[in-house]
Amino acid sequence: MRHILLALCCILPAAAQDLPTLRPFATVEDATVRLEDLFDGLGARGATVLGPAPPPGQRLVVEAAQLFAIARRHDIAWQPSGGADRVVLDRPGRALTQEEVLDALRQVLGPQGVEEKADLVLSGFSAPLLPPAALPQILVEQASYDAGSGRFGASLAVAADGMPTQRIRLAGRVVATHPVLVAVRRMAVGEVLRPEDVRLVRLPSSQGRPGAAERADQAVGQALRRPAAAGQPLLLASLAPPLVIERGATVTLHYETRGLAMTAQGRAMEGASRGAVVPVMNLGSRIIVEGRAIGPGQVRVEAAR
């Protein structure tokens, strides 16, 4: 008898560990709730489907009375320990992005006269939630566009695996845009613009600035005549060819007369870009002459004809 009691003492704790236990919190990844979402320790029985999961992004609370009824129905050896027993089931979700909606809208509104580059502004858009890994299918129905007012309306049907089809009514307006070249960082006067210093954006036509650059080739390689802030449109009037001669710099004067060429040292009285005329003081004679900047530190002085 003593040996039997010792054996039972060893067996009972192990059996107690095998009893199902409640899961206070669980994350449901698919469209159904299973026994294993409520109880641990069920083995293969845990895959039994109980019913639909909460919609993506929502939660379901299973109270003690319902948990006890589920346990009895499926012969699970579990009883509530008190009224506080419950399971909170969370179902993750992601919001359908406006970009996904706008892409679908443009395909339908384009044939109705909406320009491809126009902005579509949604009014009061409430994004439906989808299962995180689902690939949504978006269908635009009953789309209409009034070119006079710029207003549009449509119905949106969103379907994805693991969720019922959702239908949303959309409304908004079309905003005409135009291309504008902006600086991507703060830049100082005299800096020469490189391709990585600018980017092309589209702004509402009402926010346009007359004389703004609209293409990269209008600005790249040019120097700033005024400082520019990040995101600021670049005005053509604020751009100029880069200086090859700085004000006050020592330059080489190249004199060209009939059959004679000579050089002298001078000091530039102003800055100049390639091809521009610049006044230079001849350091030998102290006479100020005008010449044309032909390269870095080089000025050609042509004799009067």
Shape: elongated
Could you say which structural class the secondary elements and strand pairing correspond to? mainly beta
Terminus-to-terminus distance: 134 Å
SSE order: HEEEEEEHEEHEEEEEEEEEEEEEEEE
Counted by DSSP, the helix tally is: 3
Strand order of the largest sheet: 19-20-22-23-24
Beta fraction of the residues?
A: 35-45%
Poorly predicted runs of 5 or more residues: 1-17
Helicity, in percent?
Answer: 10-25%
Tell me the radius of gyration. 38 Å
Mean pLDDT: 88
Give a count of the beta strands, DSSP E runs of length 2 or more: 24
Q: Characterize the largest beta sheet: strand count, sense, and whether it forms a barrel.
A: 5 strands, mixed, barrel
Quaternary status of these chains?
Answer: single chain
Can you describe what's shown?
The chain is built from three helices and 24 strands. Strand 11 and strand 12 (151-160) form a beta hairpin. The longest helix is centred in the N-terminal third of the chain and has 17 residues, at 2-18. Strands 19-20-22-23-24 form a five-stranded mixed β-barrel. The radius of gyration is 38 Å and the shape is elongated. The chain is mostly beta strands and 305 residues long.
